[in-house]
Design a protein that fits this description.
The complex is a heterodimer. By secondary structure, chain A is α/β, with parallel strands linked by helices. Chain A has helices spanning 37-51, 81-92, 132-141, 149-154, 167-179, 184-203, 221-231, 244-257, and strands at 2-8, 12-19, 25-32, 59-65, 77-78, 98-102, 107-112, 118-124, 211-214, 235-237. The mean pLDDT of chain A is 92. Classes of the chains: A alpha/beta, B alpha/beta.
Chain lengths: 258, 410
């Protein structure tokens, strides 16, 4: 028996299929989010099932998570991304005590107890500063591809200070920096530091490690460093940070049956 | 007899299927209160608006007044208020003031006097603007309840209120009238306490929202008392849907939820929770203690009761933490959820202590919801609430999955 986790996030949809007997990953896939997300998600799920060389009848359960989870009527149950992240991370890094998850539309801090159970969580989704969307806006303004952000910010000699708490105002601040002929790499590094600062505030003072970094933004090399410097704590990035939520959802689907 | 309009609320009441169920009666709390206020006013009674639970309704009643709560809960009144008041202000204050600007609150318009309690700074300064439109008596609260002279100051303030009422309404507040008012208010508090205590059951017979609705804007309405008594007889054994046993038991704390501002309560209960205890000013907080009746000095006894309300405007406010602890145990809470109206600084800062106590002493999950009256963040709040409920359930069942996994030798 196999189990599927579908994470319908704000920017992308992720699917992970695991084998119930040993909880290993059999297949996974990702697609950009769109208007008809239930259809998009189903197409992706079908594709991952095909690629995994199994049949739909082999799927013993589907758990949906992410912003769009309630739109996926064909899922057996819906679980919040907070619980799914915790399950996904725990499977990969069993002794993790804090998760930093930065996605497209929100960022969250999840504190786990010594058994990997969620103790407390803090979310930022009122504004885009502190999320992947912020980086997208800035990369676009600087004419840099998102995937190259890490390479650029590594080169920064002196990161700019970006103090605005709102992406729209921050963008105006960046326009000012560009007008003053500030180097793009310094601006990018400044933006990453600004996101890291917001995350640090959310993490609070009494957090425990190991700290695990998940979500699409964890793919950008510069962010890990910015967060480590700000938190003054080492950070582990999971192997496939975009898929932790979907993986956790698949584990939860299996949990009911095994 | 009014017919039951909402089948969902009395469908499960066995003894009285279609007739007037008390829950339904209170669905018309505003109309009920207005009818009462109008008839009392016609008989010569004075309408006295209040905006805080520290005001002793007993004094107003003993002066022949009808105390009515004016706290605004309507989102519609917030925007008009922002034309005058700063946008960055608590929605309860803005809504209350907006009603005054638009003359939309009939109780405010018919009030002969407002008692303006100085609790937070926002209210205090709003009262100065309100005073330009309505006769208003300012009641100053002490802020350091542990100080030796705090209580003396409070008694003096109540004496000033007593004099103000007597002079304005040309009456004498006699010991006899005061005693009668104390008796009425004690009875009301007792009935409400008993209703709230129904939620201690493993299968509470009503929802938190239904309990929240079982009140009127005016205290001491005789018909309310009859309905409370009836509810206490009828409700035990009633079944709610979804079944109470499967829902996460929530202790709600923080700011009051005036009529019209029950959105967060609904979010909590529509996502798998049941609010079993409301430790706030529209819940148990003001009714846990009564006024001592058999005493020569009733004014001091009244002062004592109200002095003991643990509001976040007090410093330090140790009693609130003790109270939450006791209530969480009595009502078997699974988690504590605190609601803060945006910019309510005193509750917001105090939430640091509530969270710490909840997590360290009660060992329960805690969630703070900071919001206002606009519905824009409903989905965001629901996500956090769902995640909290999953956390509660996860903690309860932790270990189960892991044990099985190990057995399978992964």
């Amino acid at each position: 028996m196999y189990f599927a986790g579908v994470d319908a996030g704000s920017r992308t949809i992720k699917v992970v299929i695991i084998k119930g007997s040993d909880l290993t990953v059999s297949g996974f896939g990702i697609v950009d989010q769109g208007v008809r997300q239930a259809v998009k998600a189903k197409e992706l799920l079908d594709k991952v099932i095909r690629n995994s060389k199994i049949k739909i009848k082999d799927i013993g359960g589907i758990v949906a998570t992410g912003y769009g989870r309630n739109a996926l009527s064909w899922a057996d149950s819906k679980v919040t991304e907070i619980t799914c992240q915790a399950y996904g991370v725990k499977q990969e890094i069993p002794n993790a005590r804090m998760i930093i998850d930065i996605g497209g539309q929100d960022s969250k801090i999840i504190h786990l107890d010594s058994n990997g159970i969620v103790n407390d969580f803090v979310m930022n989704d009122r504004c885009a500063a502190g999320t992947g969307r912020f980086l997208e806006v800035v990369a676009d303004r600087l004419e840099i591809k998102l995937k190259d952000i890490g390479r650029y910010s590594d080169k920064a000699a002196s990161p700019s200070k970006i103090s605005s708490m709102c992406v729209v105002f921050a963008e105006a601040e960046i326009v000012g920096l560009l007008a003053a002929e500030e180097a793009p790499e310094n601006i990018l590094a400044g933006v990453q530091n600004s996101i890291a600062k917001r995350i640090c505030i959310m993490a609070g003072s009494g957090f425990k490690g190991p700290v695990v970094f998940t979500g699409g933004v964890a793919l950008l090399p510069g962010m890990k460093k910015a967060l480590q410097d700000c938190l003054e704590h080492s950070i582990n990035v999971v192997k496939t940070p975009q898929f932790t939520g979907a993986f956790g959802a698949a584990l939860l689907a299996a949990k009911d049956k095994y | 007899m009014p017919e039951c309009k909402k089948n969902k609320c009395c469908a499960d009441i066995k003894k009285d299927e279609t007739a007037d169920c008390p829950i339904n009666y209170f669905q018309n709390q505003v109309e009920n209160s207005l009818d009462y206020a109008e008839s009392m006013k016609a008989e010569g009674a004075k309408i006295v608006g209040i905006m805080c639970e520290y005001t002793p309704r007993e004094l107003i009643m003993a002066a022949g007044g009808v105390p009515v709560c004016l706290c605004g809960g309507s989102v519609e009144m917030v925007e008009p208020a922002e034309k005058v008041l700063p946008a960055n202000l608590c929605p309860l204050i803005k809504s209350t003031f907006g009603f005054s600007l638009l003359k939309e609150n009939p109780f405010l318009e018919m009030s002969d006097l407002l008692v303006a309690e100085i609790t937070c700074d926002g209210k205090k300064k709003m009262y100065e603007l309100l005073a330009k439109m309505h006769p208003l008596h300012v009641l100053e609260l002490p802020q350091k309840p542990e100080d030796k002279d705090a209580f003396k100051h409070w008694v003096a303030e109540l004496n000033k209120l007593k004099t103000a009422l007597e002079q304005r309404f040309s009456v004498k507040i006699t010991a006899k009238k005061l005693k009668e008012a104390v008796r009425v208010m004690n009875r009301e508090r007792k009935l409400k306490r008993e209703l709230a205590a129904l939620m201690k059951s493993d299968n509470p017979p009503l929802t938190g929202r239904e309990l929240l609705d079982m009140k009127s804007l005016i205290s001491g309405m005789p018909e309310d008392f009859k309905q409370y008594e009836k509810a206490l007889k009828m409700l035990p054994g009633r079944k709610i849907k979804p079944a109470a046993g499967k829902r996460v038991r929530v202790l709600l704390t923080g700011v009051p939820m005036p009529h019209g501002a029950e959105r967060v309560m609904d979010i909590l209960e529509e996502n798998g929770g049941l609010v079993v205890c409301q430790e706030n000013c529209t819940g148990l907080k003001p009714i846990l203690e009564d006024v001592k009746e058999n005493t020569g000095d009733l004014l001091t006894a009244i002062a004592k009761k109200y002095f003991n309300i643990p509001c976040s405007v007090m410093t330090p406010n140790k009693k609130r933490l003790v109270q939450i602890k006791q209530l969480a145990a009595e009502y078997k809470a699974d988690c504590v959820i605190e609601v803060i109206w945006r910019t309510c600084i005193t509750y917001d800062v105090e939430s640091v202590l509530v969270k710490k106590m909840t997590e360290e002493e009660l060992n329960l999950p805690y969630l703070k919801i900071e919001t206002d009256y606009s519905p824009s963040d409903t989905a965001r709040i629901a996500l956090r609430v769902q995640a909290l409920y999953e956390t509660v359930k996860g903690r309860k069942s932790s270990g189960r999955f892991e044990k099985k996994k190990t057995r399978k030798g992964r």
